[in-house]
Every structure is written in C-alpha cells, then in structure tokens.
Write a sequence for this structure.
C-alpha cells in the first residue's frame, strides 16, 4: 500500500468523505438519459467560469464611481491576462444565459417539472431570474457611459410600478441620482448577495435532483400517477439504472469541456465587449443598449403600443412569473411525452420564435433615429444644385434622414423615400410634413415656405418608375 | 421508566407521531412503536409536540413533548434575535442611501450673457447628492434655452419614456431620443414616439447675473420637479 493510499485511508476514516460522496456520485440514473441531459451541468460549468473569473476580476476592479471605468479600461488594455479573463467573464455570462434557457426548454419539453419534482422546477425558476438580473447588473458594473444610462433606464422602468415604483427606483439607484452609491450597491449584489444566494440555490437544486432522481425520457404510453410514480421510477432504476458516475458524469464532462473551451476560444478571438466612453452623465451623446441576451426585451420596450406600455412593463413580468410558478401545480400529473402534450412543442416553438424575431428587431433597432447617418451624396441626389439639391440638404439637416432612408442610406423608423414621387402627390407630402402623424413630428412651425418647397420638390423627384403623378 | 404512552395519549394517539426527531427518540420510543407505519418516521418536526399541550399535560410522555415544544420555540426565537441583531444594522446601512430625504440644491451656471438668445444648449452642473469619490458621475446635464433677456427654460435630459438622454437637433428644432425613438418639440411637448408625457422642466433662475439651476433627483415616475416644486420656475431676478 503506497503512502497516498494510507493517507486517504486515514482521511476517509476520520472524515467519511468517500462514504458520503460515493453513494451520491453513483446514484443510479435511468437508461436512455443521453445528451438531452447535459444542459443543466453546462449551465453549472458556465457558472463556475463566472465565479472563478469574477474573483480574479475583483482583484483589479475598483467599485468606485470615479475609478471603476478607469480600472476596467486597465483590465482590458494594460493588465496581463485581463483581456482574456474579462472576455471569459463576458462569454461565460452569455453561455450561462443560453444554457439555462435551453435547460428550461428541455425540462418543459419533457415535462420533468411534474410530480414529484415541483421544487426542482421552482428553484430552477428562481435561478433563471437571478441569472438574468446578474447579466444586467454585470453590464452596469462596466460603468461606462452606456452602463450608467442603463442603470437610469432600469430604474425608470421600476418607477412605473404603482404605489411603490418611486421608492423602488430609489432603491435601484441607491439614492436620487446615479452616483458611487449606485455602483457600490450593484457591486455588492453582483459579487456577494446574488452569487451567495445562487450557490445555496444550486446546492438545493442539485440535492433535489439526487433526492427525486432525474426523469427518464418520456414515452407516450407513460403517465405520471402520484400513487405509483415513485415506485415505478424505483423499479426502473433497480431494473435498468446505471450509476451517474461515470456514465452520466462523462457526458456532462464532455459537453462541459466544449462549453468552457468555447468560452476561452471566443474570449481569445473576440475579447471582452468594448467599454465605450467614460461615464460622464453630462455627455449626452449616449445610446444605451443592453447586451445581446436582453436585445429581445429592448425590442419589446420599443415596439409596444403607446397605451399598453405601463400595463405591459409591470404585468407581463408578473404574468410570466405566475405562469412559471403555477405550471407544476396546474399540470402535476398525466402524460409527459410531447406527443400527448401537443401544446408543449407549440409553446416552445412560439417562445423561441418570439425571442429570435424580437432579438433580430433589437439588433436592427429600426425604431431609433439613426444619428450617425451622413448627408446624401450628390450621386444619390442625382444633381449638384437647384431646388432638389437644397431639399436633399434639408432632408438631412432637419433630421428627416435619421428616420427616413433614401435608398440604403438613412434610418428605418419611417417609410423609405426612394420612391416617394411614385407613391405620393405634392399635396400628400405637404400635408404629412406639416401635420406629422403616425410617429412623425409636425414640421409646420419649423420650415419656411422656401424650405418646404425645396423638400417637397426633392421628395417628388425620388422615383423608381415612370413620371410623377 | 416512562408510562406506557399508548395509555397516556390514547385520546390523541397521533400526538407523538410527529415528535420523533432523533435526539429524543428514546423518550417517545413507545409512541413511535405504537405507529410503526407512520410516514413521518424520518421527518423532523422543528416545533416538537405540536398537539401535546392540550392532550395530557400532567402525564409524563406528553409533558416531555410539551417541554420539547417550549424549548424548540425558545431556540427558534433566540435564532431570530441573533438574525435581527446581525441583520437590522446591516440592512439599515445598505438601504440608508435609498431612504434619505430628497435634496435639491441651486447650482450656479454661467453668466446670463453666455447664453445666446433662442439657442438650446447643454449645461453641466454638480448633482445635489454626491459622494467625494464620485468622479465624473457627480455631474448631471440639462438642456437650457434663453427665451428672452432674463427668461430661461430648462429641460431634464431624461426622455420621459425610459430616461435615456435626449439630444437637441438645432436644425430640426427637435429633441430626439436615441433609445426608442421618442421625439419632442422645442417646448418639450411630445412630437412622436413612445414618451407618455412632455420633457420635465427643471427650475431655473437668474441671480446676480448668473443663471442658476436647481439640481435634484432624476425625474422618474410621477415625481417630477415641476410638479413637486411649484413656483420654483422663477423667470426674473
């Protein structure tokens, strides 16, 4: 017996660690539980990336309103390893959001939330909420111009809650305006309170997985019956179960390596997201946008009908929370296979489609004025002088081009004006320009008759077919 | 040593069923023995002997249960005291900045003549509530326009939709928000997009030839300086 074996034997005798972990590691899992089951552990690997890289980043980051941005800039540009570790923290967050979403879909798809695993589902739901909150707060901790305005936007949304809204907003800002207290409180949430809570919840979530066992992939003929379900599961494990270690663990490890390797490679290739401008709230040329995993929500906020906003911003998250909490209690028994739950694949498809469509809309950001557009070139205008040329210049200087493209140049909020001359008459253009409407401001008080004439002439000259109407 | 629990608690045979935390297993072994099929045998009842008090206070087995119940409640209460002693001061410190009274301070800007008539310009001033280590975030901005000689109007930069900073486009004579497409006329009224109300007007005044602006909370929700501070919109000195 070599010396290590002796040490281990002594250690085991005094602690019982092996006797404690052994049965947990070797708990039987159902057969046929294959690659569908790796997303939970993939989320856990991503969380591990976040904890370790987060600790490393905290050795350089300074949570002070006046210095946080400088320290982040230093992490990104000066400190050896800083760029890689910050990049890993960013892509780790992305992986965590992605895989917790896929894990949720898988659990819903296979109805694994049913009896007796209701608490598995609920602890997971809270973890999902915390993960998204962590993502948002992490973005604020960059303490760039974008981050500071994101904190304001977050608080403004909270302020719309009836009765407690203003108080809630002040709690979110830790005061009446954005300052160092805002940053310190977000830092404490991001580094102590939420990760601590998440570690406890993950522990509970895993203990519940051990206690209730992982679900077997459902067959159409199986149904959850509370009277027999546990016994059926026990019998299945006794008959065909395989030990988690190493059969299940191996698949988790293979997928986990892919996840972590992916995070590292992406961090090396792309690095962390750019930190942008310093957080000077008096610099008004800011365009606050969230990180990619919240683009879809960003799009919702822009696309909501005007009257529905308050109701949606408050009721929709509440409704979603109620649905998620209620799900395992509304449908605790019965068939688990999607063949017997046709609404399940429809729901998954619907949610995924919504998120992808909204996400794309969020990336394109068609509703925003495009402040970065450049004046139309003479080539695009088609002439170098005269009323049409003057009109084109006004089309830019009066801000029309921010929202109305001409061809492929300009914003996308309003209709493209490349064929205005085909679609509209002189009177129609004038009326719309003067009165506004449909999301367009009225320009009546803002244009001299000469300017108006130039603009109309320019727009009428935009034709893709035939002579003017 | 112990009276037969079956007899003692015959009226309430289930009294002890929920009482079997491991440390007291011997005391109530008889009770458990009476109900070997109990599903609660592996459970842990944190408040022991819930129903024992009324069931037979003077009988020994049930007395144990009632004493255990009392000790359990006492222990839990002491735990709550410990949690309160640690938690209350800490929570108070964490929430203190959010509980502070709102402060408003007049901040001096440039001399009146610095501002050309009719032009809308951004001004920068120090926030009302700042910390020494705030750096650049100690400052805020507003849009100010000199309408007449000593008559100014100031708008919060925060879009009334979700608080993004609006930009002034002098040629277009409009404020535009970069986030969700809110547009305002030069008087702050909504011209287009999602904002539910006009831009917030901030109190300004002229003192000793200087323009002054009242720094205060970021306008949010229903709480708008123009509404909470009526009459502050002083137009002349």
């Amino acid at each position: 017996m070599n010396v290590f074996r002796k040490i281990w034997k002594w250690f085991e005798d005094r602690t019982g660690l092996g006797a404690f972990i052994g049965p947990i590691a070797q708990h039987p899992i159902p057969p046929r539980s294959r690659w569908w089951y790796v997303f939970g552990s993939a989320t856990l690997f991503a969380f591990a990336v976040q904890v370790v890289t987060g600790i490393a980043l905290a050795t350089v980051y300074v949570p002070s309103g006046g210095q946080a941005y400088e320290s982040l800039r230093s992490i990104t540009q000066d400190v050896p390893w800083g760029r890689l570790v910050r990049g890993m923290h960013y892509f780790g967050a992305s992986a965590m959001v992605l895989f917790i979403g896929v894990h949720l879909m898988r659990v819903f798809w296979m109805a694994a939330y049913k009896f007796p695993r209701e608490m598995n589902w609920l602890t997971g739901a809270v973890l999902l909420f915390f993960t998204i909150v962590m993502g948002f707060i992490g973005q604020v901790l960059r303490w760039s111009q974008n981050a500071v305005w994101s904190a304001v936007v977050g608080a403004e949304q909270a302020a719309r809650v009836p009765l407690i809204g203003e108080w809630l907003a002040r709690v979110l800002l830790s005061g009446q305006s954005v300052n160092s207290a805002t940053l310190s409180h977000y830092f404490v949430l991001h580094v102590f309170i939420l990760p601590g809570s998440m570690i406890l919840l993950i522990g509970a979530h895993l203990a519940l997985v051990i206690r209730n066992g992982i679900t077997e992939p459902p067959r159409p003929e199986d149904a959850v019956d509370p009277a027999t379900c546990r016994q059926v599961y026990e019998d299945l494990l006794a008959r065909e179960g395989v030990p988690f270690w190493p059969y299940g663990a191996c698949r988790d490890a293979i997928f986990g390596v892919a996840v972590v390797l992916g995070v590292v490679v992406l961090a090396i290739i792309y690095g962390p997201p750019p930190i942008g401008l310093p957080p000077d709230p008096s610099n008004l040329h800011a365009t606050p946008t969230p990180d990619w995993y919240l683009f879809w929500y960003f799009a919702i906020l822009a696309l909501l009908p005007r009257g529905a906003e308050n109701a949606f911003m408050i009721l929709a998250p509440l409704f979603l929370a109620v649905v998620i909490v209620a799900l395992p209690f509304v449908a605790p028994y019965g068939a688990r296979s999607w063949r017997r739950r046709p609404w399940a694949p429809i729901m998954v498809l619907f949610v995924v489609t919504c998120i992808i469509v909204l996400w794309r809309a969020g990336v394109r950001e068609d509703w925003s004025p495009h402040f970065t557009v450049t004046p139309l070139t003479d080539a695009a205008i088609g002439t170098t002088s005269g009323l049409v040329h003057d009109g084109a210049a006004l089309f830019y200087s009066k801000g029309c081009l921010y929202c109305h493209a001409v061809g492929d140049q300009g914003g996308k909020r309003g209709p493209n004006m490349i064929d205005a001359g085909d679609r509209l008459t002189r009177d129609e253009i004038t009326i719309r320009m003067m009165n506004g409407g449909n999301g367009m401001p009225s320009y009546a008080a803002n244009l001299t008759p000469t300017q108006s004439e130039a603009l109309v002439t320019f727009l009428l000259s935009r034709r893709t077919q035939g002579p003017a109407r | 040593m112990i009276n037969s629990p079956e007899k003692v608690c015959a009226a309430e045979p289930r009294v002890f069923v929920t009482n079997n935390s491991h440390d007291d297993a011997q005391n109530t072994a008889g009770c458990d023995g009476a109900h070997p099929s109990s599903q609660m045998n592996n459970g842990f009842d944190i408040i022991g002997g819930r129903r024992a008090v009324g069931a037979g206070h003077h009988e020994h087995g049930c007395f144990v249960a009632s004493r255990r119940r009392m000790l359990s409640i006492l222990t839990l209460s002491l735990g709550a005291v410990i949690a309160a002693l640690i938690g209350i001061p800490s929570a108070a410190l964490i929430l203190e900045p959010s509980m502070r009274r709102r402060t408003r301070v007049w901040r001096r800007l440039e001399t009146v003549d610095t501002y050309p008539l009719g032009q809308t310009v951004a001004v920068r001033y120090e926030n009302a509530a700042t910390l020494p280590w705030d750096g650049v975030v100690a400052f805020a901005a507003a849009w100010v326009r000199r309408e007449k000689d000593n008559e100014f109007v100031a708008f919060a930069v925060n879009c009334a939709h979700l608080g993004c900073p609006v930009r002034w486009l002098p040629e277009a004579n409009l404020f535009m928000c970069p986030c969700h497409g809110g547009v305002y006329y030069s008087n702050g009224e909504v011209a287009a997009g999602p904002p539910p109300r006009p831009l917030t007007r901030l109190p300004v005044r002229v003192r000793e030839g200087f323009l002054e602006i009242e720094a205060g909370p970021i306008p949010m929700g229903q709480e708008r300086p123009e509404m909470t501070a009526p009459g502050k919109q002083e137009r002349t000195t």
